[in-house]
Amino acid sequence: MEPKSARRGQQIVRSGIPATSEPHDFAADDRGSTPLPLQLLHTRTSPAQATMPIPNPANTTHDTPELDCIDFSGKTVYGDFRDDIVRDGFAVVKNALSPERAQHYVQEIHQWLEDFGLGYKRDDPSTIKEECLPIIHQKGLLQAYGIPHESFTWGVRSEPGVIGVFEKLFNTEDLLVSFDAVNVSLPNRRDLPPVKPWAHQDQDPLRPGFRCIQGFVNLNPCGDNDGGLMVLKGGHLVSKEYHEAFKNEEQEFRWTNEMYLFKDTGLKWLEEKGLEWVKVNCGPGDLVLWDSRAPHYNVAPTGDMARFVVYTAYAPVSTATKEDLIQKKWLFENTKGHSHWPQGFQPFVEQFIAPKRNGELDPHNNWTPRQKPVLSERAFKLTGIPYLEAMS
Q1: Relative to the CA of 74, which of 89, 94, 182, 375 has its CA 20 to 30 Å away?
Q2: Which domains does the chain have, with CATH numbers?
Q3: 228's torsion region: left (phi>0), alpha (psi -120 to 50) or beta?
Q4: CA distances from 335 to 30, 33, 339 (A)
Q5: What average pLDDT does range 64-75 have in this prediction?
């Protein structure tokens, strides 16, 4: 089944994409000197939303179409990971890349950490502390230091087995990928505050329906004690009902409207529905997917295994607007990141995510990848740039 086309903006063409015989050399690309027009760097609000009061207004991304590539009625049996998404709201796709490839990326991440020259050594647990590392959020998120466009990050995004899952899901090869973060949750971080449950969903409550699949590629073994994703099993199916019940609830500040934090009253409501939290275990090279309507959060490792994952979300090009593609081009060429939505995204707000060391901006962060990727033709299409050029 072909995904629905975008409901607004210019239709994206699917043919006439310029082909290249050589990989796109990101490292040699110096076209990223002209920023987007100011209006494209600010938030975008649809006419329908302009009349909707949002407490403590966040940056507002534009609406995205509902997707019809999965039948959530339960009448269709797929015989694969899609059945799990329909029933549970999440799925583990085994061996999207081989354990050997996963280990290759694990070593590249260790090398990246060591190359800061701060003292971290992959075989010395005593160096797992802030003074020896880049600044890593207590939840393991790395969004700065150019990591959204680091060579190993794009390597994972470019893996055929990962892309193939999303091609099957959306029934198209014309895809965009998000320029999202990497999670590096090292074990035994006694210098960080404990990670408390922070149940949330990454979809605007005012926009119900199936609109986005989130994902990450897991690189190390991830068992009960190795940190990872917690998902409320079946929570995606009651999302619309939940938000109708809590539509008058006040919300604290959110950096984007595509973020909703559950309060205790809401969690109690979900518990009374008989829904339970599940820790998602997975192996090296597994791809974990979840519906953006599903309540979820992550937990830190309590054992000795590091959690390394690369967030990977893809969407059909047909669901993007021309403005999305213009902005993605600028973000790509200037090595900037954005939220997990491949389209209708919120660029990372650097004033919020800029890492600080001893109260000052970390001098080790220059927002530039240390090793810029050289992209294959297939990977370069995921940026959206060839589709934009074909529209000219």
Answers
A1: 94
A2: 24-46+61-71+79-391 (2.60.120.620)
A3: left
A4: 11, 11, 14
A5: 94
Q: According to the model, what pLDDT value does residue 254 have?
A: 64
For the stretch 203-257, pLDDT in tens is: 988 899 999 999 999 999 999 999 999 999 999 999 999 999 999 888 765 667 7
In our burial notation (b when 16+ CB lie closer than 10 A, e otherwise), range 316-329 reads bbbbbbbbbbbbbb
119, two tokens: 């003292």
SS (H, E, C) the chain: CCCCCCCCCCCCCCCCCCCCCCCEEHHHCCCCCCCCCHHHHCCCCCCCHHHCCCCCCCECCCCCCCCCCCCCCCCCCCCCHHHHHHHHCEEEECCCCCHHHHHHHHHHHHHHHHCCCCCCCCCCHHHCCHHHCCCCCCCCEECCCCHHHCHHHHHHHCCHHHHHHHHHHHCCCCEEECCCCEEEECCCCCCCCCCCCCCEECCCCCCCCCCCEEEEEECCCECCCEEEEEEECCHHHHHHHHHHHCCCCCCCCCCECCCEECCHHHHHHHHHCCCCEEECCECCCCEEEEECCCCEEEEEECCCCCEEEEECCEEEHHHCCHHHHHHHHHHHHCCCCECCCCCCCCECCHHHHCCEECCEECCCCCCCCCCCCEECHHHHHCCCHHHHHHHC
Question: How many angstroms from the chain centroid is the CA of residue 292?
Answer: 10
CA 308, CA 43: separation in Å to the nearest integer? 32
Placement of tokens 């589709």 in the chain: 387
What pLDDT does 255 receive?
Answer: 62
Whole-model pTM? 0.86
Backbone angles phi, psi at 91, to 5 degrees: -155, 150
Q: Which two tokens stand for residue 114?
A: 């060591």
For 360, the token pair is 């000052």
Contacts of 36 (CB under 8 A, 6+ apart): 326, 327, 330
